[in-house]
Amino acid sequence: MGLFSFVKAAGEMLGIGGSSAPSASALKDKVAELGLQSEGLDVSVVGDTVKVSGKAISQEEREKTAGFC
Predict the structure, then answer these.
(1) How far is CA 50 from CA 3, 9, 21, 24, 64, in A?
(2) Residue 17 near residue 4 (C-beta atoms within 8 A)
(3) What average pLDDT does range 24-41 have in this prediction?
């Protein structure tokens, strides 16, 4: 088993990651759950690419949101 296969399998056992990409609404819900503040947050998922747009209240919030998604 390669390193990446191990990390993927370990993540699936811990309930993170997985074989399917999360939905845009699930990502938006998680951002709200984490308390990250933004105006007009829009998240779209196409394949393994996530596009995030909106207006963050600070550079720190912007980086946290982008890093999470």
Answers:
(1) 24, 22, 10, 8, 14
(2) no
(3) 89
Query: Which amino acid would we find at residue 40?
Result: G
Cα separation, 69 vs 65, in Å, equals 6
| Distance between CA atoms of residues 23 and 9, nearest Å | 20
Instruction: Say whether pLDDT at 40 is over 90.
Output: yes
Query: Is 42's pLDDT higher than 90?
Result: yes
**Residues whose CB falls within 8 Å of the CB of residue 44, separated by 6 or more in sequence, listed in order:** 24, 50, 51
Q: What is the mean pLDDT of the chain?
A: 79
Q: pLDDT for 49-59, tens place per residue?
A: 889 999 999 99
Pairing of β 38-46 and β 49-56: antiparallel
- 62 burial (CB, 10 Å; 0-12 / 13-18 / 19+) is middle
